[in-house]
Amino acid sequence: MARPGLGRRGGIRPPRYSAAGLVSHGLTHRDWTPMWRRHELEPGYDVVIIGGGVHGLATAYYLAANHGISNVAVLDKGYIGGGGSGRNTAILRSNYLTPEGVRFYERSMDLYRGLAADLNFNVMFARRGHLTLAHNDGSLRTMRWRAEVNKLQGVDSEVIGPDEIKRLVPYMDVSAAARYPVLGALYHPPGGIIRHDAVVWGYARGADARGVHIHQDTEVTGIDVAHGKVTGVRTSRGPVSAPVVLNCTAGWSTLICDMAGVQVPVQTFPLQAAVTEPVRPFLDAVVVSGSLHVYVSQTDRGELVFGASVDPYPSYSMRGSLDFIEGLAGHVLELMPSLARLRLLRQWAGLCDMTPDFSPIMGPTPVDGFLVDIGWGTYGFKAGPVSGEAMAATIAAGKPPPLIAPFGLDRFAEGRLLGEKGAASVGH
Amino acid sequence: MILLTCPWCGQRNSSEFSYAGNVVGRPDPDQATPREWRDYLYLRDNTRGWVTERWYHRAGCRQFFVVERDTVTDQTRDPRAGTVSLNAAEPPTAEPPANQGAP
């Protein structure tokens, strides 16, 4: 990858975090060293990554860590982790429906499990157990199907009945008199939650230590293409030349692709979420109901985090709506009536780039050197590490590894759509 | 978006409506190449700004109608009247299609 004059740049390792370091810092009150540095925008890089979220930063980190390509810039028009990476509900799981989907997300879970040690940064991964509720025979049948596919791939999943659900989530209404009675659930013990900001910061710190330049407040305004090959990007801070440009944005992925003249089948929908005031820990598992379009988890701070499915029409608006909050409250109370007095602290929306087959688009485009890692819909966060690893491998090798080969942009023209119904059942 | 103006029923809660998609021309199935047909099926402009789109008044008069919407602010305006704009500085940009009202 290295071009003349743009060799590999060495990094400065930040001090390792440790219990002893925490104590000495606490006693001396010395300033912590910044986790990543500011740099002048250089005139050229080997790789420019647009979008400083978990996907972009993970790609930069694995490029430097696994492939020795560190002359890399990550550009973000705002601050890192300010888009989808900071707006999701931080749920991790790998209990998908198709074998390809299960293998892909299980690799991501593997990386997440080892991430704190790998990055020397506490990402606060909590294995809580993940319940996907079935309210009718059809979804119970799908849960059985998913459980069997999961087991074949070595992923711990099983279907459990209302008694077992009640044992795991005592506050849930599993009575037969409920409006949407709980018939059973797909129980996925390895599922859990994580601190999504910490994942972004950990990757940024790791990438910075290996020589990657992270440029915040740097908006890409254009992409230069000559003779079908990308030559660089124009930014609000000046032009940057690069033979490889990777689009890792969400919400803006079609706008960035338009700059390179690449058409992608993506539409942007807001997905809303909300959080309550903190209360004592009472909910250990992550509870998802596809029929009620709601998922609930309790953070380490005690707040309940609620998410829903995407809004019913495409929009770039990131405002919350009354419609959403009314529907959400009704559905949550349907599951856990005792939460009626709990107050909501805030609600927000993140932008989800939906593709026709509810699967992402990863890999090369018709413009040579312009790659995409987009269309992550409602499932991008949990796939951050694996797609970073795979996109780094794609850039290093010049072609996508087999794990992500089916996710190419060419699948739409060739009619090879991927139906991942384990992802499509509910935004999660 | 909280309210949407139905040409027949006036301003109603947006929850009464269903989004029915961008107004795009359908190629002739007998004439279109597979590529044109796939583009029609999958590719959308995903415009950031004003778009012309169809909505369906599901819980009301059950008619389809065409509305212009700003996808950044979710403001809407009636493309036929041209003057009923929530954003007065912005004149309507798109002409309503000839087959307006058809599903």
Q: What labels describe this entry?
A:
heterodimer, A: 428 residues, alpha+beta, FAD/NAD(P)-binding domain, D-Amino Acid Oxidase, Chain A, domain 2, eight-stranded mixed beta sheet, 12 helices, disordered N terminus, disordered C terminus, B: 103 residues, Folate-binding fold, four-stranded antiparallel beta sheet, 1 helix, elongated
Q: State which percent range the strand residues of chain B make up.
A: 25-35%
- Per CATH, the class of chain B reads Alpha Beta
Shape of chain A: globular
Q: Helices and strands of chain A: which structural class?
A: alpha+beta
Task: Characterise this structure.
The complex is a heterodimer of chains A (428) and B (103). With 428 residues, chain A is an alpha+beta fold. Chain A has two domains: 39-87 and 196-266 and 357-424, FAD/NAD(P)-binding domain (3-Layer(bba) Sandwich); 126-192 and 267-354, D-Amino Acid Oxidase, Chain A, domain 2 (2-Layer Sandwich). Helix content of chain A is 29%, strand content 23%. Chain A has twelve helices and 20 strands. Chain A has an eight-stranded mixed beta sheet, sandwiched between helices. In chain A, strands 9-2-1-13-20-19 form a six-stranded mixed beta sheet, with helices on both faces. In chain A, a hairpin with a 2-residue loop joins strand 11 (229-235) and strand 12 (238-241). The model of chain A is unreliable at 1-8 and 424-428 (pLDDT under 50). Chain B is mainly beta and 103 residues long. Chain B has a single domain (3-77), classed as Folate-binding superfamily (Folate-binding fold, 2-Layer Sandwich). Helix content of chain B is 9%, strand content 28%. Chain B has one helix spanning 34-42; strands at residues 3-6, 10-13, 18-22, 50-56, 64-70, 76-77. In chain B, strands 3-4-5-6 form a four-stranded antiparallel beta sheet, with no helix packed on it. In chain B, strands 1-2 form a two-stranded antiparallel ribbon. The longest helix of chain B is centred in the middle third of the chain and has 9 residues, at 34-42.
